[in-house]
Amino acid sequence: MSAFEKLQQHLKQLPGLGYRSAERIALHLLVEKPESLPLLVAALEDAAKNVRRCVRCGNLAGAELCAICSDERRNQRMVCVVEHVPDLVALERSGAWRGIYHVLHGRLSPVQGVGPGDLNFAPLLERLQAGEVDELILALANDVEGEATCHYLIEQVPAERSVKVTRIGFGLPSGGGVLYADAVTLKSALDARRSYR
Amino acid sequence: MSAFEKLQQHLKQLPGLGYRSAERIALHLLVEKPESLPLLVAALEDAAKNVRRCVRCGNLAGAELCAICSDERRNQRMVCVVEHVPDLVALERSGAWRGIYHVLHGRLSPVQGVGPGDLNFAPLLERLQAGEVDELILALANDVEGEATCHYLIEQVPAERSVKVTRIGFGLPSGGGVLYADAVTLKSALDARRSYR
User: Fold this and answer.
1) Could you say which of B10, B37, B53 has the minimum Cβ distance to residue A48?
2) Full-prediction pTM beyond 0.80?
3) ipTM of this complex
4) DSSP secondary-structure letter at A63?
5) CA distance A87 to B124
6) Phi, psi at residue A114, to the nearest 5°?
7) Can you tell me the distance from the alpha carbon of B118 to that of A33, in angstroms, rounded to the nearest whole number?
């Protein structure tokens, strides 16, 4: 295999890229804008050196622990479980959560061959075993795979520890009326109805 | 800007990637599959070292000249002009062309700010000036930008050299009937009608 084909293979393995888009990017970097390739390599190496995974929660970190895990003003015993780092960023932007996070980096999917060993469960299960968690909020998606991941996690919570496990609420989004909501959202919204008195 | 944001900026400049897909790839390389980052960097560096742009035609090359430009069995005086390397690969796969190529790496687009200086015109114009070309086949797309690029090239052909300039034929694709063809293709097919006798 030529160096070009090898590069194309590597690019194709990145999320969201197929054969054609990998080819297009490889051509861009090698013959159309070759001056951009060393800049990209430098940015990759710089990020690899300066950005890592928080050993505790899996968030982006500049040191051993991320900024959230090392912030003592946050409740370190309340853990919100999310699929990916952008989910965490969205929750942070809302300012609605003062606990910490745990990033799984995906969700269980037997169809796509993603099992528990492929996700970042271990550090969370250790903390649960050690009794360091009071509440676990599962902020995973409202679909079959999100559901499966929730069930797996609930089974892993040690029975001898009194951990409150909740799932984030589902229903109509703010600003969205019944007319524009899809069937699954409407079902969730009806299931989650609350009594006025 | 953090090293993560810088990497995201660099990725966003690659063709076909937007803000979200760049973020997704950066997270994949830094926290989800960090073991894949050094492999990608190695593939990029290896390709940068071993793959370059043919100085004559702009194709991918392992040396000064690409395999086609250095093949003496091909007619080096008949030049087929294409937009991108994959166009050249498609024509090679057809086995229908025994001349050489010239890759522009794009086409003129005033709307997107692509002028003659941004494309690989210079080596072709030099060859035209030097009288090294007998026929120029323009295999550019059948749209406004392809058309503009053809007109620009035709104007650049030196009047004192007798160069035959043709454009690749347009019409119904093989295996496609009138029913499924779009309006522009049908117009081209009618314009390109040939008399039986």
Assistant:
1) B37
2) no
3) 0.78
4) S
5) 51
6) -100, 110
7) 10
